[in-house]
Amino acid sequence: MTSTNATRLATGDVLDVRIEKVAHGGHFIARHGGAVIFVRHAIPGERVRITITSTGSSFNRADVIEVLEASPDRVIAPCSFAHSSGCGGCDFQHISPTRQRQLKADVITEQFSRIASMDVVVNVEEVAEPLHWRTRLIATTNREGNLGFFAARSHTVIPIDDCLIAVASMKMNEIAARKWKPDVRVEVSVSSNKERTIALSPISGEGKARLTEGHQIMHEEVKGKTLEVSQNSFWQSHTSAPTVLTQAVLDFAQLVEGDHVLDLYGGVGLFTSSMVELIGPSGRIDLLEGSKSATADAMRNFANNPNVKIHLGDVAKLLPRLTNADVIVLDPPREGAGKIVVTEVARLQPRAIVYVSCDPASLARDTAYLKAHGYSLSTLRAFDLFPMTHHIECVALYLPD
Hints:
Elements: E1 14-18, E2 21-23, E3 27-32, E4 35-40, E5 47-54, E6 60-69, H1 97-116, E7 124-125, E8 136-141, E9 147-150, E10 157-159, H2 172-177, E11 184-190, E12 196-202, E13 210-213, E14 217-222, E15 225-230, H3 241-253, E16 260-264, H4 270-279, E17 284-289, H5 292-301, E18 308-312, H6 315-318, E19 327-330, H7 338-347, E20 352-357, H8 360-372, E21 375-383, E22 393-400
Parallel strand pairs: 4-6, 7-21, 16-17, 16-19, 17-18, 19-20
Antiparallel strand pairs: 1-5, 2-3, 3-4, 5-6, 8-9, 8-11, 9-10, 11-12, 12-13, 14-15, 20-22, 21-22
Helix pairs in contact: 1-8, 3-4, 7-8
């Protein structure tokens, strides 16, 4: 298939281009005869030789096959699988960690400018070393039973012998050396207490993961609290993320005794575990979560806290039942909270809204919604909790106008 741009491109074409800037999603923009090209494994300012990997009516995709003029920020990827025909996970390994963070800041700025019509300047904060940080990952086996990860924009499994961003206690080299059942997802988790679980599930369909190693419930230590987290409940993947994000939320929320707090998309209760002490016995927390597994964990985690109420269900449907809140904390999935939830949040007129986001585009969109309802962005922090990848975690504070 060929594109309908001014210059018609076809899959397999080889071009020499100059890279302009980073784009949301781990790509870099180049142009050729009026055609827009999203390029992987590039850096702004470089002149590179690329091959077109797919075409479309509005943009094309390509990958670098040769660097003609390298950026001073280009480095040798530490992982032997981080290249154009390799694993699709770590799309920034060819870039120095400092420049990675600068590029992520550029993406946040661009998304807020384009979607929310706001000028936002933010520093993406370094959290830890860029390798050996991931405590949860999903690998896949091929038809021969070899463990690996999908190539970029592909269902092709690239077999691996280790994963350098996984924490050492995961022992991915040992896991990768095993012979597995063909065509299954392998979900590996390691807790802060070095507990390890492995669960298998079908690649396709909605089959439930079956635990093959470890216990169904793990234990995570955060700021002096122990939380139970089931194998199929969400938990932050960076080893430092629970503490870093919790502290950022607390700094923004400025809770006082007696506060009524809503913890939306609250999961197993990461933020609630630290907030409950600050509000005291006279305060209360309503935790809203759609996952049955996570709410079951939360009910156990706060069984001795009568002022914490756990609500299972769609946040958008649960919120209309609530009538007030002093502070609202929300940590929605990648697609963000959306217009309905934002409208309900603003209706409750909290004195502060703290929004944790793993996607700057949905955060910018919801920022515009909040502004329309009388809440302006006061402070924004960004954390490099996904080093070697294009992903970013932000925490934003909104205050009433």
